[in-house]
Amino acid sequence: MSNFSRRALGALLLLPGLAAAQGAPRRGGSISVAQCSANRFVASAQTARHPYFTVDLTTRIPYNALVWVDRQMRLQPELAIDWQPASADQSVWDITLRPGVRFHDGTPLRAEDVVASYELHRQRNFASGQIQKIEAMADGRVRFSLDAGNSEFPYVLAEYQNMIMPAAPVETIGNTGIGTGPFRFASTDPNRIAVYERNPDYWREGFPYLDRIELHNREGQQETALAGLRAGQFDMVMTIDPRSVRGLQRDADLVVDSGGGGHHYVIQLPKHPGSPFEDKRVRQALALGVDREAIVRLVYGEGNGWVGNDSHLVAADPNFLAMPRLPRAEAVARARALLAAAGHPNGINLGTLYWSPQSPEVGRYFQVLQETAREAGLTMALEQRPADGYVQFRTGENDLSKGSFHRFAMTAVGPRNPGISLFRMRGDFVESGHWRGAEHDRYMALYAEAMREGDAARRREMFAAMQSLLHEEVPALLPAGTMTFSVRRRHVQGFEFHPQIWSVRFDEVWRG
Amino acid sequence: MRWGWMRREVAVAEPVLQVRDLCIAWRGADGRANRVVDGVSFDLAAGATLGIAGESGSGKSTLARALLGHCRAGSAITGGSLRLDGDDLAALSEAELARRRGRVMAMVPQNPLASLTFHIPVGRQLEEVLRLRAGLSAGPARLRAVELFDQMGLPEPERLARRYPHQLSGGQRQRVVLACAIACDPLLLVLDEPTTALDKTTEAQVLELIRRLRRARQGAMVIVTHDLNVVADICDQVLVMQHGRIVEQGPVGAVFAAPREAYTRVLLGAALRVEEASRAAPALPGPALLEIKGLGFRYERPSLLRRAPLGPPILDGIGLSVARGEVLGVIGESGSGKTTLGGIVAGLLGGQAGAVRFDGKPLPGLAGQRTREQRRRIQMVFQDPLSSLNPRRRVGDAVMRPMRLFQGLDQREAARAAAALFEELGLEAGLLSRFPRQLSGGQQQRVAIARAFAAQPDLLICDEITSALDASVQAQVLDHLAAMQRRQGTAMLLITHDLAVVWRMARRVVVMQGGRILETGATEAVFRNPENPYTAALLGAASRAARAGRPEQAEARA
Amino acid sequence: MRAALRRPAALLGGLLVVLHLAVAIAAPWIAPFAPTSLLDAPLEPPGATYWLGTDDLGRDAFSRLLWGGRVAMLVAFAAGAVAVLGGALLGLAAAYRRGAFDDVVMRLVEMKLAVPTILFVAIFVTGFGQSVPVLIVAVGIIQMMGVVRTARAAGIVLMEQGYVRAAQLNGESGAIIILRELLPNVADLLAVEFALRASSALLLVSALSFLGLGISPPTPDWGLMVEDGMALLESEPALVLAPALCIATLVLGMNLAAEGLADALGLDAARGGGG
Amino acid sequence: MIALILRRGALSLVTLFLLVSFIFFATEVLPGDALDVSLSADEIATMPAEVMARRKAELGLDRPILERYWGFLGGLLSFDLGRTIITRAPVADIVAMPLRNSVALAGVTLLLALPVALAIAMAAAQSKGRALDNAVSGAAIIGYSIPEFVTGLLLIAVFAVWWPIFPATITASTDDPLSVLLAAAPLAIATTIIGSIAYLGRILRVGLIEVMAADFVERLHLSGIPRWRIIWLHALPAAMIPGLSAAALYAASLVSGVVVVEMVFAYPGIGAELVRAVTRREVHVVQAIALAAAICVVLFNLLADLGIAALDPRTRR
After folding, report:
1. What is the distance, to the nearest Å, from the Cα of residue A311 to the centroid of all Cα atoms in its chain?
2. Full-prediction pTM beyond 0.90?
3. pLDDT (tens digit, 9 = 90+) per residue, D262-283?
4. In what order do the strands lie in the sheet with B361-362?
5. Chain C neighbours among B 15-34 (CB < 8 Å)?
6. In this complex, do B117 and D238 lie within 8 Å of one another by their Cβ atoms?
7. C230 with A222: CB under 8 angstroms?
């Protein structure tokens, strides 16, 4: 019996992990929330309520997924109360649905709704393509058949688009905005405003507390959102720049919440012939030369960020294996020694590092990275590229025969489970800089094994071995990451922020 | 016709206007004061008419405005007095002046089109003066306006009152501003260049109207003009100005008959005197150099994408020929098509109908389509000497450019040739390195002529080449041009509105009006015995100043 | 030029521009620290070492201020030059050729008026990257179309001048006529246009930086400093106000200089600035 | 007049065609397409290549560029602006309300700024070269020299945060009645007005100074007509004429050009929609907005022509 199911069975009715609020929660009232993170979609009036076209942060206001990931990145039951692999290679999974759940329109949640929802997700959601077949089974169970073993499949069921909607054809499903969440849509203004009202039949007994939530999209316009907060128009602003935290904390009326973890950046190191990164020693020197603590201290502020370990894992993940820390002087000395050994005694020019403003602090992040790497003899130029089309830009044409290769460039990495995160370092993907060789093959073999492994403790060992490989080989650089932050006025209580912004819940928020 | 609004009684003995040592100065951008009217004194009695004559820049218009107590921004009365009806205008406040303007003194400004508000019907503009200055209420003002228009000889005054200034002819506009000025029967009426914008026929009519006004009114009148013919026509006294000073003043007859000052003589000399023999060069024998048959021109039809006025024919059935070495005068007023004709021969305009042959071969329309040799052989001198030279290039460049282009001279040879050419035209070789603005108008025009001769042309087109020049330098430029023309045996198409220029330069003349040729013939024959009434009118208007100096004419006027 | 300097406002404008230029050019020598070095703790208060304190990455705010106008001014002046040169040649060529060429040029000008500026820059920057040369070209083209109109209008007047006609009659080539006869005579106009275009380019660049399409870090830039500092406005107002003041005084200086120059040359600066 | 309108119409069609083609091909040469930019790096990291290819085919993004171009032009000819690529929503629905809001903002701005600009210009022109003129022109230049986002943020800091009498950000919906929307946007309107007054004031001042030097003004002055009457009845209408075209172009540029203000105040206008559409590579939305902006230019120009015709009888034929 897997770890997951045991824990899941223990939490049959109530969601644990949500911190207790101060004082006795009060019912009723309304709050107005602004959010600043980028929303990649252009919604129209038809699609404004579709889980794919709402802001990530708000998907769990009207909707629920089968599984929820808590602040410690652990799986928690949501619409599913149990999940079990039905085959030894972890490629078939059976899910047991929570009984007695009703959609906003009063119809009960059935296995068919899950099947219909996943017909869409299978085609559209990036992580759900592995699902080959979904079947409704007797007594409220659903069977998922995957294309290969995936011991971390339940994390897919918690992904931000994978919400459960009432059954409908793929073309129209989700447009009604009907879900099972604590609130239901009252009105929407695409890309701008969503107003939600309390769902009186919410399956979590006694929740939610609030009568109404008004959400205002202020993507990329944090100053306006914060001005609105100070002017009393908003009660809360979510996903704010870590730099603003210091100033906001000084204001006695405001409370800054940290999600306890969040995104970070991968810097892909192209390893084609002629690239300086072909030489492992240069990569190692870079890993040593970049002052990760300085990035955390200067860009995020002490305690607001974390030091990365050159894997795609975030520090909040229980599987995260920290790198050994060296005093700065020693790290620089070692980096210089490695460079000298690689034939660059006077330092090396690494060319242009491309970056894109995928979050507000990126510019400062890479300035610190550039300056501290310089201390170790690694110089580089920085060039900004627009966020729009950037992911393709960094990938390039990637045709070695034409002399075109992917670029020395950064990309943002979200906080996800090891099964998704560690897969990103595969050699045929650009973020690993097309890592090749025996170590890569060993890494991928370990990955494949872990994905078939049902036991969490054994899996954890394999993940640790993979991370150690990355520390040694440095196929890519992932120096440091940030927490996520939101700020609220004191009277908003019972709120906790989350490292995955799409897992934020408003069930227990109340107005004092 | 009754002139009932002129009832003012004025003591004849005392002058209405007394100007003493008047000085007006402009403060330039450099902060230095520049006197444009310098110690001017004169008296003007009621009923008298004074003509202030002078060329542009003589300060006569500044003086005219000062007679209403007005100086344009940047200028001020710096000395002297200006007594009108007992008050010193120079000492009055702006408010007191405003009270008198329009009532005691009024002005007919120079350019009637620009001087009328373009977006208000002319009737309302006159009513405005009548209501605000003559104190009439709306109804009577309207009636009075129509009455005034009628008295000004304007046709259908009621309908005309509803028209906008641009819908009126030049003569009608002049009458409208005249009506506005005399609306309150001012003691002093100042007319600034009242006929400059008009053609000769209209000029005669307007002058007749002014003469009638002068007779009917008892107030004094001042006419500012550069045209001595106008002074001769209607003034009793004349005051000749140059560089802000009075050169000569006195009764018209006396001054014109026996000018004491050289400058006055030059001004008068520019007037046409048909009595004297023409000194124009004869044509060389041989076939015609330029032959034009049935030439017609109109602007293109507007395309969907371009807007071009589809006017009436600008030229219609023009036929003429110019022999080698011959000077052909083309006479006509603005709008007669004479400049278009010159432009077509020169190669500036294309798309004409009819045949133009040069030296026996058909001549393509635009210069770009002509051969290099044809371009060299046909050259042109333009009206405005300043604009015909690139202000950013040394004048030597302008003259040397055709030499290098057509004769293939190198820099040194061209410089030598240019110096020689300058000498022939009476210019110092040192001027070659100057910029156009550093030269006088006459020098500029001679440089332009030098540039044309630098190409060693066979045909020179001269378009109003003296009209922008002072009378005193016109003669000089024409003399040099004539001498060059004779030396080089160049044929010339001399386009001008100035009959004196044709008289002096051309053996043969073509008279144009409305795009057609009215009359062609030997200059002497045409000028002495014009067949066409229009030619006669042109000639009549052009020779009054000359006649004014003759005793019998002066007596006849009195 | 001398007449322009006699006007106090124009003199002030000229002085402001010259001062800013001098500081920008001399910045590498007069700045006490490198503008990108991480020197000390973040947000140190002003003192003897750091005259304006340190910014939130621990860099010397004063040194950054001295450096902060360099790239913006480079872009603005270079874009102004691109606009004026390109615009003058295109406008004069349109005035010279007229006909279909003129029609095409005028359609291009109209098109530029119809394409929102932000869209134009966004397409440009997304396609070619956010580097300084790309910005110069994009901003230059935007500013150019106004110059085309001005130069064309002036060129049409000049085409009627005797010296241009004389050159045409002598069969001079279009290039010679445009370069020899027309261009030198619009020089005054272009000087004013340049000042106007450069100041408007500077404003545009700062707006683009605000939208994330303009100058990018690690370049020390006033616009970026203002944008960056807004988050700290309440606690560290100097970090916003000092660079904002620099932008404002520089643009003001350019506008005053343009106005004074235009006034002295008898041109019409306000209308030239439109479009 | 009708000929003029027809001529303008024909020219505008040419311009619009060029514009549409320019935007289509310009957005085509950019890296990525609507699908790519709708996916995050996380998603692309995990999405298999064949899934990506299948989705592109579904969305029609793999068709040759010319085929899509002709399809788009064909749609335009039948007044169909097309649908968004990802959500398949009619573009017209997305563009209509923001366009209304932007036109309203531009209209209100112009309506409020023009009289003020006029008053300032008249005050300045009346006292050309004197203290009042210098002060007013100086203020105009300063107003013109401050970036819009600085003005906007300062207004928010002062009038919404320190002295909270106006909302800092606009929380009204895109399709709220205009009265509600505009009432929620006093600071946004103030920001656009400040820039507009500076710009329009400068243009009008120059026009007025020019006209005050005209011959007809001197004639009226020399007829003893009072100065106020000369300015109001004679000079002002004449001074408006050259300013009108510039003001029209300015108004048209306001419709799509107040992106920064729309961003700072979250005004639901076409500029912000445009930025969103460009960054999401929704070519059809970009096209529709550019077309709308171009049509605004054409219409405002036409309005200016009509205004000029009303003011200047010389242009009526």
Report:
1. 14
2. no
3. 888 889 988 888 887 777 777 7
4. B315-323, B288-297, B353-358, B361-362
5. 29-31
6. yes
7. no
